[in-house]
Amino acid sequence: MKKYIKIILIILLVILAWSPWLNSTEVNQVILQKVNTKWQGIMDGCGPLRAENIKNTTRIPFGYISSIQYACGFTTQEIAIKELNDWHTVYISPFGNVIGNY
């Protein structure tokens, strides 16, 4: 009986590490939703994040990593363009949580 439980746990761990229910398109949509929801209504906040500001979405064990680019705070157009060169890496868990500096 213990052997079967161990086998089932190993299989579940492998499936969780693989996360077949996630794909890069869905991950990008989750990032857009989470980041824009976090900063919505904050006058000097960040965003709105657009799809073209999400790059290098890569599958890793137990989720994805992705790079996002945005400007924060009250800025002039020149400063906003400069700050858009600031990239942040976020981790997306198998459960759809976005973790990182955003």
Summarize the structure.
The chain has 102 residues and is α+β, with helices and mostly antiparallel strands. Helix content is 39%, strand content 23%. The chain has a 4-stranded antiparallel sheet.
List keywords for this structure.
102 residues; alpha+beta; four-stranded antiparallel sheet; 3 helices; 4 strands; 39% helix; 23% strand
Q: Give the structural class.
A: alpha+beta
Number of domains: 1
- Roughly how many Å is the radius of gyration? 17 Å
Number of strands: 4
Low-confidence stretches: none
* Beginning-to-end CA distance, first to last residue: 46 Å
Number of helices: 3
Percent range of helical residues? 25-40%
Helices and strands, in N-to-C order? HHEEHEE
Strand order of the largest sheet: 1-2-3-4
Name the beta content range: 15-25%
Mean pLDDT: 85
The main sheet comes to:
4 strands, antiparallel
Net shape: elongated
Task: Write up what this structure looks like.
With 102 residues, this protein is α+β, with helices and mostly antiparallel strands. 39% of the residues lie in helices and 23% in strands. The chain contains 3 helices and 4 strands, in the order ααββαββ. A 4-stranded antiparallel sheet has the order 1-2-3-4.
